[in-house]
Write a structure and sequence with these properties.
- The protein has a 5-stranded antiparallel beta sheet, covered by helices on one side.
- Helix 1 (4-18) packs parallel to helix 7 and helix 6 (185-195) crosses helix 7 (208-227).
- The longest helix has 20 residues, at 208-227.
- Helices cover 25% and strands 22% of the residues.
- The protein is of the alpha+beta class.
- Strand 3 and strand 4 (68-73) form a beta hairpin.
- It is built from 7 helices and 11 strands.
- It binds a DNA duplex through helix 6.
Length: 287
Amino acid sequence: MPELPEVEVIRRSLSKKIYQKKVKKVIVRNKNLRFKIPRNFISFLVNQKIIKVDRFSKYLILNLPNDHYCLLHLGMSGTIHLIQNNKKNNITNTSFYNSPILPKKHSHVEIIFEKIKLVYNDPRRFGFFQVFNNSKLLKKRFAHLGPEPLQKKFNLKYVYTILSKKDKNIKNFLLDQNFVSGIGNIYASEILFLCKISPEKKARFLKKKEFKKIIFYSKKVLLNAIKKGGSTIRNFKNISGKIGDFQKNFKVYQREGLNCKRIKCKGIIQKKFISNRSSFFCNTCQK
DNA sequence: AAGAGGCCCTGATAGC
DNA sequence: TGCTATCAGGGCCTCT
């Protein structure tokens, strides 16, 4: 699923294409997403300009005039496609995430601008749209979420205060959006590998030095992933759709049974289910 | 009240 | 080939 870096990459490309564009039409084919698409969704958007494309954590926020906001979460399988209608009447498909061609199935929502349209496709329908009439309500929507790893608020004092007495394992904390928001299952494993910390280690047993590492590598992994264009995004410029022209440079994720990438470490990457989510880690260098 | 587990949903893949 | 079981990157709700 798209984690913070993927959503940020999507935000940037989206922003370039739909900034200051006016919504001409909205099509809702299936309103039964994770949450039902609100009744006023279409009228909320039509004739409005996109004045900014924002993001918090894994949420995209389309800023509209008059302090209105349209929130979009991609869930596990949500993808955004931009279809451009150029002068030659060719349809150029720009896929921002995960798919070589525009899927016909599961394209639940279309937001249509003058020469371009945004298509939301989501097989599992874990994603959702929500609308907010002012920034107060939007803020309230995010109130329960912890800071992003990239924010200054995500510092030693904050992490220590929350984690130092908790009995929950650190992997679950990295996935807990109330503690820190934006990290998902892939990057959680990657971050802990770089920290040399076992995913099963209870938070209260972590030392100050380890808290510092968690903060440092959380930032580093996410920033690096954004820089690389979202490492979980498949690069599907190849219309033939052949797999293999995208690379995952993961150190542990989906590397079960393979050698640890750390120099001189003889460890083997393990896969283990921790709270129903797959976790990958080196059995030797992560303590 | 913290933490574990179940559930929403479809599709891809593995195993028989 | 065709069935079934398992798993997939998230988040919210409930139960203990």
